[in-house]
């Protein structure tokens, strides 16, 4: 499955050069014709030669004319007929589920339990030797931190991701510093000093980075290949009430209305720097009134 994603990389380099339309890094190929048996929904119009054009997948007119940094991807039909619950739901509108199983880059050990260096190269320019990395600022990535996850994950994989993509206030930065010391963790910000995916998540499977190091402290209740575990919980309602109270406190602090999502209780957490289910992660930056 790894090859699929390399294909995307190759396609973009070719695609961008040929079409001279600026596409974001890791973008899906355009200008290609439907493969045999592919039957996108009717609304997904094709170009004159039955090729993929911007309007095939996007509901924003003249998208190709909008400068990249001005594109608003938060509109509902940015992906046509969206929003979708996950990126793969969208992919399966054209691709067969079979053979499209997603390559889980977070599984970083091979069958023999050795680090698979190829995996590192999705994000790192060179495979780091974990013991030899003493200064994180020396690491070179293939994309700015804030874009590393987006070829494979949605920009809004869950509630509040966009709201978090901001530069924290001084008060929050202070809280972060304290939390880093108290829990001996890192809460890295992106190239523009904003909260980003890896502020809360570590991309590394447990064991890649020594757990004695701040960068290697992480929650791993579960094997990575099993994903996050949810539970329909008879106590769900009680939990929700509890969360409501705490969120109400947060709401006061932020002076904003916060919508509660239909809440599924998280039972097993992975790839997080601190547990969220008991509130520790959120409390690294927010104060709840208890
Ligand atoms: C096969 C479907 C498909 C086609 C065709 C397509 N796109 Fe996309 N595009 C996507 C997907 C999927 C994303 C990622 C959306 C996400 O992660 O939320 C995306 C993301 C983007 C983004 C990034 C927006 C952002 O800020 O995150 C831009 C810009 C974009 N596309 C422009 C274009 C342009 C211009 C064309 C035509 C030349 C085009 N796309 C054709 C599927 C497509
Ligand atoms: C509107 C239909 C459509 C949608 C939606 C779509 N694709 Fe594609 N995709 C195509 C077509 C057409 C091609 C080129 C023909 C081919 O290679 O099968 C292609 C090619 C690819 C390739 C190149 C490798 C290969 O098999 O040749 C990858 C990887 C890929 N798509 C992944 C995705 C992912 C991931 C998504 C969801 C984000 C997605 N596609 C959504 C139509 C689509
Ligand atoms: C999905 C992207 C991604 C992949 C894949 C990835 N890394 Fe990283 N890595 C990052 C990011 C982002 C950082 C900086 C933030 C951090 O330290 O967690 C980082 C940091 C590191 C650090 C410094 C950690 C510290 O705090 O001292 C080491 C060592 C490292 N990576 C090793 C590896 C190795 C070895 C692999 C392959 C087995 C790998 N990484 C795969 C994204 C990735
Ligand atoms: C403020 C902290 C925070 C930030 C920032 C954040 N996440 Fe999350 N993420 C979480 C928590 C907590 C969960 C646990 C499950 C939940 O509550 O949905 C999670 C869950 C996930 C999941 C699993 C969703 C599921 O239902 O299986 C994915 C994938 C994910 N995050 C990716 C990302 C990506 C990609 C970004 C950046 C665009 C990001 N996260 C930014 C805290 C964060
Ligand atoms: C090469 C593709 C790829 C890249 C790049 C990538 N991921 Fe993932 N990630 C996956 C796949 C595949 C899964 C397994 C679950 C799924 O299919 O969504 C996953 C799972 C996760 C999960 C756990 C959700 C679960 O329930 O399994 C989190 C959290 C997550 N990724 C965060 C990140 C963050 C943060 C980054 C960027 C630093 C990132 N990912 C980069 C492919 C990728
Ligand atoms: C690394 C720091 C950090 C962590 C961890 C964090 N947040 Fe935030 N959060 C922020 C910042 C920064 C904002 C932007 C508003 C501000 O500056 O107060 C924000 C805003 C919010 C908002 C308001 C959104 C809006 O619409 O304005 C909510 C709700 C929220 N966070 C909930 C959570 C929850 C729940 C968690 C735990 C899963 C969490 N946060 C973890 C830093 C963080």
TrEMBL record:
This is Uncharacterized protein. Keywords: Signal. SUPFAM superfamilies: Multiheme cytochromes. It comes from the Bacteria.
């Amino acid at each position: 499955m790894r090859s699929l994603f390399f294909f995307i990389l190759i396609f973009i380099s070719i695609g961008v050069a040929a079409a001279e339309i600026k596409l974001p890094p890791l973008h899906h190929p355009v200008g290609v014709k439907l493969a045999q048996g592919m039957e996108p929904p009717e609304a997904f119009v094709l170009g004159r030669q039955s090729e993929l054009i911007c309007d095939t997948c996007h509901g924003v007119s003249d998208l190709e004319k909008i400068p990249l940094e001005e594109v608003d991807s938060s509109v509902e039909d940015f992906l046509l007929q969206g929003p979708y619950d996950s990126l793969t739901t969208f992919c399966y509108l054209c691709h067969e589920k079979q053979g499209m199983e997603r390559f889980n880059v977070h599984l970083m050990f091979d069958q023999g339990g050795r680090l698979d260096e190829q995996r590192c190269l999705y994000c790192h320019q060179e495979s780091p030797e974990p013991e030899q990395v003493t200064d994180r600022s020396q690491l070179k990535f293939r994309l700015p931190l804030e874009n590393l996850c987006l070829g494979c994950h949605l920009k809004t994989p869950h509630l509040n991701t966009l709201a978090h993509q901001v530069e924290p206030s001084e008060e929050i930065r202070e809280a972060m510093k304290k939390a880093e010391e108290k829990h001996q963790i890192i809460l890295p910000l992106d190239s523009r000093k904003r909260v980003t995916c890896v502020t809360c998540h570590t991309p590394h499977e447990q064991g890649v980075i020594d757990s004695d190091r701040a960068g290697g402290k992480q929650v791993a209740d579960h094997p990575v290949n099993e994903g996050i575990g949810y539970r329909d919980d008879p106590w769900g309602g009680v939990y929700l009430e509890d969360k409501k109270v705490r969120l109400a406190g947060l709401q006061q602090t932020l002076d904003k209305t916060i919508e509660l999502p239909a809440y599924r209780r998280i039972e097993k957490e992975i790839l997080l720097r601190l547990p969220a289910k008991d509130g520790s992660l959120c409390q690294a930056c927010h104060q709840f009134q208890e």
